[in-house]
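Sample entry (432 residues):
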Amino acid sequence: MDVLMPQLGETVDKGKVTIWFKKVGDAVKPGENLFEIETDKVSMEIQAIAAGTLAEIRVPAGDEAPVGAIVAIISGDGSVSASQSAPSPAPAPKAPAPPSVAAAPAPRPAAGKIELDPYFEVRTPSKNYGPAQIGGRAITPLARRLAAESGIDLAGLKGSGPHGRIVAKDLEGTAPARGAASVAPAFTPSQIAALYKDVPHEEIALDGMRKTIATRLVQAKQTIPHFYLTADVEIGALLKLREQANDSAPHKDGKPAFKLSVNDFVIKAWAAALLRVPAANAIWAEDRILRFRRADVAVAVSIDGGLITPVIREADTKRLTAISAEMKDLAARARDRKLKVHEYQGGSSAISNLGMYGVREFSAIINPPHATILAVGGVRRQAVEKEDGGVAFASMMTVTLSCDHRVVDGALGAELLSAFKDIVEKPIAALV
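Predicted structure, serialized as tokens:
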């Protein structure tokens, strides 16, 4: 029985084995942890789904393997793979697989049913959850997206994946098609190293997460036509409402049942604004725009080595206490890299809050396929002019909305930001 490297999302094409919980010769039972893998986003314990004996470990701890590769062999009767809640793995590579092992076909959606990939693309009945077909050959969703963004012609490309499947690494060093835009780096690694060879420094190897962040942010800035809208929001009423809510929280064992943060209110207000301006509650899906009937809000969380954006689903319908509890749980598990794939993929918009670091205002880069992201600065006391011409101090917060002009034009973005400002400045009716 072959234990395969599972696929933990459409954009993941390999995983790194960090720990083996079993050694060769150990008995294995269904549900027992076999090994832990690390991708660019998460760490996850992979369990066995069949009984037997661990006869061979092909990918030792510390090594990487592509999705679908055989990482171990379990002797005895049972199923052929170990998995968590991941999609069906890709076919195993030809070379290491015994002749008797056949690649299982990728499952297809029911006829006539339109499937939506939660992160990158619209699924139609002619597509499936396996690799797409280019001229009769398979290509992974990640490779297809990278090729499209880089202008690479896949027609004559040779795939190195299982059964000739084109994977992301096959695109490395491939020149864009004639007429496609290409930007060369200013310096090569060796040139940079030579430039600083006499300067004391430390080299930090890039892990998978940092490489992915770098690639995606460059692609986002190069391919998404960003524009920015900034507004100052008076949040005195919101702060009073937060104080009243926290003061009224019931206590258990001497501790309050909840403690709402300003960010909890921001998440709820942003979800309400997206529903108030439904044309802006949308994403770019390459050949179409998807508009949503609910607000799933992704929230940037800083973790060791990078960041991740867990998603608060249906934030428009949830109470503030529920949003607060869910956000604390997601953030804690994000920092431990224990999020499941569906918990950080998708969303109709995003929030990045740097106010707790004393940042007054900033502009965030859109995380595709989102079309908007709200950058939230810190709260400050500021002198403002009153309606009677006098001057008073007020609690102010600066927010900047980044928009993808392909989905949200200037007037629509201004309407969305205005709706958020109105909800925050008059929070009782909209947020309670």
